[in-house]
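Lab notebook page, bench 4
Experiment: in silico fold of construct C2
Operator: M.H.
Input chain length: 492 residues
Purpose: comparison with the prior construct
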Amino acid sequence: MRIAFDNTYAHELQGLYAPCQPYQVAAPSLVFWNQALANELGLAVEDADIPSLPAVFSGNVLPQGATPIAQAYAGHQFGQLSPSLGDGRALLIGEVLDCQHRRRDIAFKGSGRTPFSRNGDGKAALGPMLREVLLGEAMHALSIPTTRALAVVSTGEVVYRDQVLPGAVLTRVAASHIRVGTFEYFAARGELESLKRLAAYTITRHTPQLQAPQLHWLDFLREVSQRQAALIAQWMSIGFIHGVMNTDNMTISGETIDYGPCAFMEAYDPHTVFSSIDHQGRYAFGNQPHIAQWNLARLAEALLPLSEMPPEQTLAEAEAVINSFPNMYHQQWLKNMRAKLGLSSANDEADSADEMLAQDWLELLQVNKVDFTLGWRYLADAAEGDESRLRNLFADQSALSIWLARWHARLHAEETPSATRANSMRQHNPWLIPRNHRVEEALAAAINGELAPFEKLLAALKSPYQETALYADYAEPAPEEMTMNYQTFCGT
């Protein structure tokens, strides 16, 4: 097959990565192939190429023009700096310009040891790689910026974790794999020239409206902050919990990356944590906006050496950007809440009232232990006058009635036909998300060689806003006892 690589990171940032080759696998077999994404990337894949895909996307036979490199980055992990992480089991094999002329990375995950592997084997298990497929494609269907899976190839080998598991290599596509931690890596070492080169490259690639980084690093910081504010507000609007918001998992592009211990919340509770390694609840659902701001402060610290202003002015300017993040996030959150509530108008006078309406709704969901996804979805029915499905979710009918009266009064202030409003709400409140128990069922079957449950769930997740009897089981919440004890893992 032919891939038109255009590898600027490898060519322009020599010395900021480690050249490395993927390891050779024993018996590659294609488990998942994303033809729609391949078309989007402009990959020339003919029918005759299909038999060669396992060899190509396992790393056994690299296509012409590939320049595999392990990127260097650091990261604050649960608040503590790890100065040298890097791609310990991943390789950027190259970049392409897609059909919309957007630059996209194509990278392997699970392709073997690199100079950054430390004591790891650099390999990946099939289950976590297929999890990346399900969660990434679900987020894409929900219109949330995300990395995506192009292919998953089983290796015909096993990996050893807490048990013996089948091995696999994921091919991941991203706007780029540049992270907050990428800047931290060179800042922590005092490598100013490398930091300048990285900043200049990243600004040109991700914020081309800016020019010299020494003059516009504050604008760059502000742009990244705005992207993160929009992204986290979207997470919060659908009940997504990333689970491990370390700075090496925050992209400069504003895409969701790394679907390890992530999960979707069921009964609404901002304190929800599923990650097995988050013992203190640092990355709980409700903490995500605060952690995003904390991570951005680490980016600001890494960028400070680029400033030509006096130190006091530099610090004050950077702090001003970071301190503006809560307002950036709040504006994005309120915009999303209005859409989910069926409100179209926005003005300063209504902001406070609409925010209170949304907050009181969330409190109702929490007190009544209502499923977050279905509570919002059935609110659209109520916009058309049918409250039956919604009321079945609530124990406290009186409190619900009081809130609904306030909501209807607010709706009547806008001249929007009820059917139009309800249809709009259904485009902002999904019917179907990757329910944790369904994801686990599909992955367990896939590990045992049965891919049909995985494929059916994946098909369902591609149409999250459309209710259909075919996928009705996937819309149902997990039993409470399952959710109470549910944990997610890194899969490393």
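Observations: The two ends are 30 Å apart (CA to CA). The mean pLDDT is 94.
Next step: discuss at group meeting.
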